Amino acid sequence: MPSELLPTTRRALLHRLAVEQSRNRVPSLIAGLVRDGETLWVDGRGAVRTERPTVDTQYRIGSITKTFVAVLVLRLRDEGLLELSDRFGEYVPGTVVDDRPVWQLLAHNSGLSSEPAGQWWERVPGYAPEEFLSTVDESQLRGEPRHVFHYSNTAFGLLGQLVARLRGREFDRVLREEVLDPLGMNRTTPEPVEPYAPGWAVHPWADVLQPEPAEDAGAMAPAGQLWSTVGDMIRWLRFLTGETGGVLSPETLTEMCQPVSVDDGDEWTRGFGLGLQLARHRGRRLVGHGGSMPGFLANVLADPAEATGVVFLANTTSGVGPLATDLLDILEEHEPRIPPEWHPSTEVSAETLELTGLWYWGPIPHLLRVLPDGLVELSAWKGPGRTSRFRAEGDGTWVGLDGYHRGEVLRVVRSEDGSPHWLDLNTFVLTRSPYDPQAPVPGGTRPWK
């Protein structure tokens, strides 16, 4: 596979992969790295039956399936078929979460049990839809307080039913038509297709294996049914870094990546967006999802800011450590991303250029500068403070794209000679000098003493 990695980098990556497979006794393991849409590295260890795993070898990906469900729900929202604030019971009535908004199910905030009623769902044949829905009763709600993070496989079984009902087709068919086929992910399937890895449990105290079952999860399939390959998961990583292929708008993908739930309290190193796991690691902000089913472990993690991602697939029930982040760290250490060359811009208008520089919100200096993509950024000049980017609207106003001022309108008020006098940002008045007496500062101004 084409790659420009240095031999020393490739060896370091292989060493980390080999240590994981050997030390943790993983029957087979394969991993890959992508950057800027290009596959940098793929390698495998161990054996699937008698052969080394390849980019085309299927493994079960478990809860990575949930990321596809979330994309299908957001597509429905973007088409105007639902709102995330709508009550779930408007579309799939008759369960204990009739009154919960759709977004809570996506973000694991609904209060539902982590597992569905009945036997261990990952190891037995699943319920048909109506039977599954009948089990999501009061016994499936967990205690107060509400609206806190509690991971729920049950919620994604329900979201699969929402997709199927609004589309009028089976979930698997909707997924194939709307996501997998458009992205060319032909080796991602609900059932295994050769070549595929069998699932194994490794005895904790002996080097022997036990086969794990791979049942059809029925109505719970959206929580973890899919099988896939490193090749297809690399395409999914490219999706998560912005190559959405028309399946989803970049703006909606960004929305999915915003923190909604926090998994680890005050530390906030792990959390959830809308169907996506979020992590902060060594200055990186990662999005993706892990996956586990009996006999399998998997992970996909993308760094959208660096257009970089990692995937691993393994056929073992337990034992793989922080392999994904370690591989990203090795890549960063050995071959950090080379930033693009800087070139001066010739497309900044005089009207935009004269907005740049220091502005004062009361006594606090803020800096307004033009970004390479034509947006402007307003941020505290020194130290912590609010930062937002703004996009020109064509009528002399600017709209906030992120941060505290997301969606707010920035209006430039000009003097008689046309020069910018002050900025009006949703009642905040920013002036060229602290508390400029010539500007309408709310509450008025007094002389400095």
From TrEMBL:
<dbReference type="InterPro" id="IPR050491">
    <property type="entry name" value="AmpC-like"/>
</dbReference>
<protein>
    <submittedName>
        <fullName>Serine hydrolase</fullName>
    </submittedName>
</protein>
<feature type="domain" description="Beta-lactamase-related">
    <location>
        <begin position="23"/>
        <end position="328"/>
    </location>
</feature>
<keyword id="KW-0378">Hydrolase</keyword>
<dbReference type="GO" id="GO:0016787">
    <property type="term" value="F:hydrolase activity"/>
</dbReference>
<dbReference type="Pfam" id="PF24491">
    <property type="entry name" value="DUF7586"/>
</dbReference>
<feature type="domain" description="DUF7586">
    <location>
        <begin position="349"/>
        <end position="432"/>
    </location>
</feature>
<dbReference type="InterPro" id="IPR001466">
    <property type="entry name" value="Beta-lactam-related"/>
</dbReference>
<dbReference type="InterPro" id="IPR056008">
    <property type="entry name" value="DUF7586"/>
</dbReference>
<dbReference type="InterPro" id="IPR012338">
    <property type="entry name" value="Beta-lactam/transpept-like"/>
</dbReference>
<dbReference type="Pfam" id="PF00144">
    <property type="entry name" value="Beta-lactamase"/>
</dbReference>
